[in-house]
């Protein structure tokens, strides 16, 4: 029995989610739930070495195993010109290695067999002989002149990928020299992994008779994947049908194209049968995309009154063996230039140098709008160090340096135009909720007793909703998004969008936008995403872009429908078009509100009783090219107590006040905040994809790569301020990533605040208990 | 190897390899795809099912081990078109987002309420600590169980009344 969810004027209401009707019954249709007739399974052979020459690959025993249908190697793919594939970052990546491997767990061969188990059996029988080579795991070492050159395929004889810079170097250096105070820190954001609970996978189903490939795939961006596939495999785009079924979490992990996908497609075309590949958790954590891995040196200047004067950031970025970052083309370091954050810097400069290492390729925007997490972490950590150096309260320092609410739209020194914000109001709300002044008093008392309690603040500004076509594209494709709305004769709506949700609730929230615009209930609107044969073209769901782009398209497509509806209403009401008013639910004749027709009546008329000369039907499509990005922001406050016996930083309280403009569904927004904060907590305290000096991955499963359970996860206290985006059709901003972007600095600042009496200003995250304990031990204050 | 098992009240038989894991028996042989596989290392709990009423991670049980036993999966929760209070609770409390971990969470919390009909928040959090969720941060999952607990108790009372 479906629960009641019908409600008119649904925008801004906590409507229960439509998609849950199937998900709470276990009736979601995830990739691995799909079983096609005659389907085969693919398993990959992976390298145990991080860097090695391949001396030979012997596939004879695997081929001889009953039930094995095909064994693919790089040589086989080379004959099809598919041994390498392009990455979204404009680099190329090996699909199956030919002459050497560049990271541990790299794909070397593929085995296709009757069952998953037989494919694994076959993979174990492929014998590969390796000759190990020197390994480089640190990107700073990779950029030294005498470092081994990893990529033989490039003409460039070093490991440097790109240099990117923004801002005014000379002016920034000068301003720093003239500053009364300069703080310097080396801030590291370690390699982490999105690790959705559903791993990546696909089924390739090639129909040789029709020349059509149906490709079921765990995809956050089905249209982009289809276009990439058309380019890589040379298949005509209209004969590639990408279906992204229910997706069990993405967080950026399901944006790129992986070697296993290409191998499955080649297998299906070769064998004329469907081929499924689903990665194991180990394959997920070791090969399909990491995030972060930024080494950032910051200099932050201030005058003698504590006003910020200049910001300079120098970064070395580890991109692994292949540059498979998923950034917009013109932004190789993503939107890192948001690094001046919420503060009014007169001048700034940032640069990033990226390097190849013997580690898995990436890095993707993990719950982050392209390197925004790195930038926010950096500026929020640096502001904390500045407060410590000046001996001022970190909240007061922020109030003093915020971009004032009267300054919007605000042009940042690194080139962005912030749309809206009221940073002081947002921080004030957070400080009130947590009773900040009382906490500071308590802290003073505890410090006097030798206890280590810390309060950390993060007042971040995000940049999301990529993006305006004049500057945002991926592989040349502009980053607009789209919505098509069809209203059927009885007033029921099917809406399709170019995005693909993975838990964000689009089936409900986009229905709320459309229902609001058309005077319907969400029950009247069915939202469909993820099928490239039916949905209009769009670049997908990541980087908090769905609401800023496709959400805008949904509102504007609905308004197009309503505009036509108004003309039909005029005909039904027997008045002229300009005498028709809309009250949010009905059209009525001006001055006679009782003389009204509903959208359902108008819909029926669109098929049965049209004004003379009008084209029948009631539908609209809108491709929305946003005029600017949106700039959600928030104020987070964390309180920690450090256990002097174990070094554990226990999170006592965490208050998150977010401002994402107009809220479509408060329940969904709060859920996103809870989830993102929990991921941010993990990044601050327990997660790192670390490597030993031989390039062995030290976190290849969930027993080493820790995901917080309900026991570790703190309890979140949330609220919001609402400063609508002036340029978005309904005033909304993206929000899914704010908590993951903003929270790591709040946790780290809280720990540094706790340890500041010991003179500590910076420790690398993740802040494992042993790291904190070691600091306490050095100062002789352990218990 | 031929095995026989009662699944959600129905007798089923299947011919399985000795190495087949219970999760693949459930998903591939019995076509009950609500049980998900997320990690292969007994860490994530997405594959949790009830074996004779006890939650087990079905990626770490061999199919042959369940011969002659009783299984309950997420598909067994809804009775005659009436969602189980936990299913209603997860829906009402926004206790799920992507929905991939949800079936495992439901089975674990079903067993919790069977043995402890009025759990505290800490008891709920401890009970689900073998089930990983990347979307919700668990807070609304706790609420979902708190929503369901009194309804389960009422149902049980009502059943007792009928029995009397």
Q: How many extended strands of chain B?
A: 5
Largest sheet of chain B: 5 strands, mixed
Mean pLDDT of chain B: 97
The appropriate CATH architecture of the largest domain in chain B is Orthogonal Bundle
**Count of helical regions of chain A:** 19
Q: What are the segments of chain A in which pLDDT stays under 50 over at least 5 consecutive residues?
A: none
Rounded average pLDDT of chain A: 97
Q: Structural class given helices, strands, pairing of chain B? A: alpha+beta
What is the assembly state of the chains in this entry?
A: heterodimer
What CATH architecture of the largest domain in chain A do you see?
2-Layer Sandwich
CATH superfamily heading of the largest domain in chain B? [2Fe-2S]-binding domain
Termini separation of chain A comes to 57 Å
CATH topology of the largest domain in chain A: Aldehyde Oxidoreductase, domain 4
What count of domains describes the coordinates of chain B? 2
| Rg over CA atoms of chain B | 16 Å
**Number of E strands of chain A:** 33
| Strand fraction of chain A | 25-35%
């Amino acid at each position: 029995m479906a629960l009641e969810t019908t409600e008119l004027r649904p925008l801004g209401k906590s409507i229960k989610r439509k998609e849950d009707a199937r998900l709470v019954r276990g009736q979601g249709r995830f990739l691995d739930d799909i079983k096609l007739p005659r389907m085969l399974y693919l398993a990959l052979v992976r390298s145990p070495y991080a860097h090695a020459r391949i001396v030979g690959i012997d596939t004879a025993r695997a081929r001889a195993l009953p039930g094995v249908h095909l064994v693919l190697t790089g040589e086989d793919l080379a004959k099809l010109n598919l041994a390498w594939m392009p990455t979204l970052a404009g680099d190329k990546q090996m699909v199956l290695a030919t002459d050497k491997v560049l990271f541990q767990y790299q794909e070397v061969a593929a085995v296709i067999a009757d069952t998953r188990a037989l494919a694994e059996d076959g993979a174990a029988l492929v014998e590969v002989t390796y000759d190990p080579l020197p390994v480089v795991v640190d990107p700073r070492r990779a950029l030294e002149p005498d470092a081994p050159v990893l990529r033989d395929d490039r003409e460039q004889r070093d490991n440097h990928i790109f240099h990117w810079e923004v801002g005014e170097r000379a002016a920034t250096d000068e301003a720093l020299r003239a500053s009364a105070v300069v703080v310097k820190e080396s801030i590291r954001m370690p390699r982490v992994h999105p690790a959705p609970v559903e791993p990546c996978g696909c089924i390739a189903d090639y129909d040789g008779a029709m020349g059509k490939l149906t490709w079921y795939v765990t995809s956050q961006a089905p249209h982009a994947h289809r276009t990439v596939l058309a380019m890589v495999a040379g298949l005509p785009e209209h004969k590639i049908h990408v279906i992204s079924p229910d997706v069990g979490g993405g967080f950026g992990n399901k944006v790129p194209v992986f070697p296993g996908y290409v191998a499955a497609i080649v297998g299906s075309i070769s064998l004329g049968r469907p081929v499924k590949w689903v990665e194991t958790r180990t394959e997920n954590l070791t090969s399909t995309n990491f995030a972060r891995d930024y080494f950032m040196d910051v200099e932050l200047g201030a005058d003698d009154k504590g006003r910020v004067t200049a910001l300079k950031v120098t970064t070395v970025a580890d991109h692994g063996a292949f540059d498979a970052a998923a950034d917009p083309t013109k932004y190789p370091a993503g939107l890192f230039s948001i690094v001046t954050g919420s503060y009014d810097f007169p001048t700034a400069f940032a640069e990033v140098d990226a390097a190849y290492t013997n580690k898995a390729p990436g890095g993707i925007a993990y719950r982050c709008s392209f390197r925004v997490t790195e930038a926010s972490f950096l500026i929020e950590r640096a502001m904390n160090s500045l407060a410590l150096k000046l001996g001022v309260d970190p909240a007061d320092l922020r109030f003093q340096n915020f971009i004032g609410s009267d300054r919007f739209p605000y042009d940042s020194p690194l080139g962005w135009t912030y749309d809206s914000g009221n940073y002081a109001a947002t921080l004030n709300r957070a400080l009130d909720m947590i009773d900040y002044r009382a906490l500071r008093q308590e802290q003073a008392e505890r410090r006097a007793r030798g206890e280590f309690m810390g309060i950390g603040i993060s007042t971040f500004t995000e940049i999301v909703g990529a993006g305006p076509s004049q500057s945002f594209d991926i592989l040349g494709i502009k980053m607009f998004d789209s919505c098509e709305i069809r209203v059927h004769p009885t007033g029921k709506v099917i809406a399709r969008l170019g995005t693909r949700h993975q838990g964000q609730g689009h089936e409900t929230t986009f229905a709320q936008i459309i229902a609001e615009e058309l005077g319907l209930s969400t029950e009247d609107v069915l939202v469909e995403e993820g099928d490239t044969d039916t949905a209009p073209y769009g670049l997908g769901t990541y980087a908090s872009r769905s609401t800023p782009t496709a959400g805008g398209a949904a509102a504007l497509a609905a308004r197009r429908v309503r505009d036509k509806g108004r003309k039909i209403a005029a005909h039904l009401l027997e008045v002229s078009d300009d005498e028709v008013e809309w009250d949010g639910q009905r059209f009525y004749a001006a001055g006679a509100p009782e003389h009204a027709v509903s959208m359902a009546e108008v819909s029926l008329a669109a098929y049965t009783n049209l004004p003379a000369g009008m084209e029948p039907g009631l539908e609209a499509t809108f491709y929305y090219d946003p005029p600017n990005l949106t700039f959600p922001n928030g104020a987070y406050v964390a309180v920690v107590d450090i256990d002097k016996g174990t070094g554990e930083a226990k999170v006592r309280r965490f208050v998150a006040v977010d401002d994402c403009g107009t809220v479509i569904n408060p329940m969904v927004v709060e859920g996103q905040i809870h989830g993102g904060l929990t991921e941010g907590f993990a990044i601050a305290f327990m997660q790192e994809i670390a490597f030993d000096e031989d390039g062995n991955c030290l976190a290849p499963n969930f027993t080493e790569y820790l995901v917080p359970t309900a026991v570790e996860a703190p309890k979140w206290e949330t609220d919001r301020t609402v400063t609508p985006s002036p340029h978005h059709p309904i005033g909304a901003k993206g929000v899914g990533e704010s908590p993951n972007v903003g929270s790591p600095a709040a946790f780290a600042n809280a720990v540094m605040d706790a340890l500041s009496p010991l003179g500590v200003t910076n420790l690398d995250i993740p802040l494992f208990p042993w790291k904190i304990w070691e600091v306490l031990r050095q100062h002789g204050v352990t218990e | 190897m031929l095995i026989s098992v009662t699944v959600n009240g129905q007798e089923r038989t299947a011919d399985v390899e000795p190495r087949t894991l219970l999760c693949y028996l459930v998903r591939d042989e019995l076509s009950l795809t609500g049980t998900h596989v997320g990690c292969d290392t007994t860490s994530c709990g997405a594959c949790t099912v009830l074996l004779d009423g006890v939650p087990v991670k079905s990626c770490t049980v061999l199919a042959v081990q369940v011969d002659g036993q009783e299984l309950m999966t997420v598909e067994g929760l809804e009775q005659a078109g009436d969602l189980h209070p936990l299913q209603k609770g997860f829906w009402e409390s926004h206790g799920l987002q992507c929905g991939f971990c949800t079936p495992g969470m439901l089975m674990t919390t079903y067993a919790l309420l069977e043995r402890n009909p009025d759990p505290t928040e800490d008891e709920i959090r401890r009970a689900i600590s073998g089930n990983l969720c990347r979307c919700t941060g668990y807070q609304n999952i706790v609420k979902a169980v708190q929503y369901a607990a009194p309804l389960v108790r009422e149902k049980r009372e009502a059943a007792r009344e009928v029995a009397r």
